[in-house]
Queue: 2 jobs
Job 1
Amino acid sequence: MNGPKPPPRILAIAGSDSSGGAGIQADIKTITMLGGYAMSAITAVTAQNSLGVQAIAPMGGEIVSKQIASCIEDIGVDAIKIGMLHDSEILGAVCSALERADSNVPIVLDPVMISTSGAALIAPDTVELLRERLFPRATLVTPNLPELEHLAGRTLATLEQMQHAALELAQAYGCFVLAKGGHTEDHRVIDTLVGPADERAVAFNHARLDTRHTHGTGCTLSSAIAVLLGHGQPLEHAVRLARSFVYRAIEGAPGFGAGNGPLGHQAVRGG
């Protein structure tokens, strides 16, 4: 008699958030709540909370590479989420270490560049390297509006402009792009998924919640998509389910912190 199906093995490569709202901590909570087995490779240690980022201490490239290798070579991996990479040494180490993973393993890349509070989380000379080395390897890239504007090199004032910029990225690097609209002033949050083959854009939208507790939404969304892909869900459906998870986690926020507080991952039941 066959036993229960093992959980999908999800490797999160990202920075640590000391307050638990974003980064590796949000990744592990999300992966666990959605039925995955969470592993981690920590790229940087941060001192941060709901008010902002107070300090960043990047890890060396060698230890980041060894963390990834330890997971892949023994446990194995079904999907990978990549978040904060901080500098070119870490990025290069991640790229080299990923060569150990099967090329069919989906990778969700959250191009973390700027925190919600406005703090820079990546060295300026690393951005181009990110585009050159990781975008082509990614299954899906999930920029928010400020990140998409930075990558496009221009201001994006309308949904149509966002979609066009996302399509440019998708076609340039052969990956899917989910352009997140949470930073716009629209009454509804509209995210757009586009692919490299000029397929139809798929728009997802929901009502904007009136809350300041949104710390870690990008980390949570990208991790949720990764674990759902690890479960075998098609990309579009994985995005739809992941967005629902994030929405419910925002609704369940515990209200901690004096600023941009964390989500309530633990409040979401049933995935």
Note: The first helix runs from residue 23 to 33.
Job 2
Amino acid sequence: MRVIDGRSVGDAVATDSGAYAPFPLRDQPERWSLVRRTVETTAGTVVVHHRPGPDPVLLLHGVAGSWTTWTPLLDAAHGFAGRGVVLLDLPGWGASSTPAEPLTVDGAAEVVTVVLDALGVGRVDVVGHSMGAFVALHLAVVLPGRVRSLSLVSPTTTATVRAARHPWRALGHLPAYTLLRGGLLVTGRAALPLLRGLAAVGLLRLLAAPVFTHVRRLDRSVLDAFVRELRPREFTAAARSAARYDTERWRGVRCPLVAVLGRDDVFARPADLDELRAAMPQARTVLLDDCGHFAHVEHPAEVAALLAP
């Protein structure tokens, strides 16, 4: 047990800094025998990459993400060989269509359910990153019979909820999240062209630096995706949805759970891990050294080894 930020965390894992972010992001579904499909939902057309098989794993991306964000983990986990895999771009993200109204947590859970039904997939081991971890937890709340286990990667949970509710107070403990949200609200529709313009003049690594521990060691594909996949409207909508969420509902989650957080994560705090264990005593919590907000990109082998069974 280690004490960090005045609180204890379950495990602290030292990582091999020489293997930092070893894989690029790949838009090559055939590499893992994935088939691209589309599923019609009430939130629009959802793009899914799927491979049938036993003991399926469902991977839910976070903000500034899509299905390709998971490809370093697929490389590290040997494509989850012998198992079924479901990766979807949530509505408004990746290649999926943008809904008329931004997606709520409940709306995301409904979309995931429709996709699984369309694919004929029953119970799943759910792996969620950031916002996707939030959706994964909610799935376990509202559809406990569908979720076999939860693996939360760089999850945005209790600290993010508080920051969304009280942004000025959050400047002290989650300044990067608060400033990003404020900046997107102020710039509105101009935010994305502004970000892409800054990237075009060589400031891409500067933009991404707060999110990754070693931004200069990232493959260009990771940086390009970070800017390409950031959607201001969906980001601010996710923050509003989080602000309204009752995290006490997580106390009803009974399935096996692992939460993996980077020590340098600017969107979450190590103290979040204590709060998750208090709500769900069965949870195993792990703090990764030398890691920011994209643990499955920065240290995919360690994350693959820690996933819930």
Note: Residues 64 and 230 are 4 Å apart (CA to CA).
